[in-house]
């Protein structure tokens, strides 16, 4: 019979081993200064450009929905929150492995995909697709869309609420 004291223990983290907590930028959700028509055009163009895309969500890194064009009945608020969760996990992976800032993350499930792309320090693009989507094509076009969305968001004055 082994004693509890004989079990292997995880060594305590060294002081300063974790990065300091990051403060989030002001939320984009509900900001009337956003160019919603132009954002909607970008989201629609990506959805129409790649067969199998059910829709797109533009959300904040805080998990709040900015806008969407979902066509499959999924809850856009839930997807914005899931995108922020994937961003948080990806950011931690990049930090712990010394690989830099979050760029993109994809989850494949039995019935489809959810891919999340960095748009700006404040925003994320989430794309929902079927299992038959051409993921390579998505990864080719979505970062360009994310960059254009980032340009549209650049210079928008955040609102405080």
Strand order of the largest sheet: 2-1-5-4-3
User: Assembly type of the shown chains?
Assistant: single chain
Number of helices: 3
SSE ordering: HEEHEEEH
Helical content stands at 25-40%
**Mass-distribution shape:** globular
Estimate the mean pLDDT confidence. 88
Q: Give me the Rg, rounded.
A: 19 Å
Strand content: 15-25%
Structural commentary:
The protein is an alpha+beta fold. Helix content is 34%, strand content 20%. It has three helices and five strands. It has helices spanning 36-49, 76-96, 135-153; strands spanning 53-60, 65-68, 104-109, 112-118, 123-130. A five-stranded antiparallel β-sheet has the order 2-1-5-4-3. A hairpin with a 4-residue loop joins strand 1 (53-60) and strand 2. The longest helix is centred in the middle third of the chain and has 21 residues, at 76-96. The protein starts with 35 loop residues before the first helix and ends in an 8-residue tail after the last helix. The relative contact order is 0.19.
Short description:
Helix 1 packs antiparallel against helix 3 (135-153). The longest helix has 21 residues, at 76-96. The chain is of the alpha+beta class.
């Amino acid at each position: 019979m082994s004693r509890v004291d004989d079990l292997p223990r995880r060594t305590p983290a060294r002081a300063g081993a974790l990065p300091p907590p990051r403060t989030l930028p002001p939320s984009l959700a509900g900001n009337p200064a956003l160019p919603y028509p132009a954002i909607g055009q970008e989201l629609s163009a990506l959805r129409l450009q790649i067969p199998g895309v059910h829709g797109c969500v533009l959300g904040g890194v805080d998990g709040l929905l900015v806008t969407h064009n979902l066509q499959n009945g999924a809850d856009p608020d839930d997807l914005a929150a899931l995108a922020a969760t994937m961003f948080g996990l990806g950011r931690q992976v990049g930090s712990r492995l010394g690989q830099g800032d979050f760029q993109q993350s994809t989850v494949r499930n039995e019935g489809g995909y959810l891919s999340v792309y960095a748009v700006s320090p404040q925003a994320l693009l989430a794309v929902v697709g079927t299992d038959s989507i051409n993921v390579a094509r998505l990864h080719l076009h979505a970062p360009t869309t994310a960059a254009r969305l980032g340009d549209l968001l650049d210079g928008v004055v955040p609102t405080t609420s």
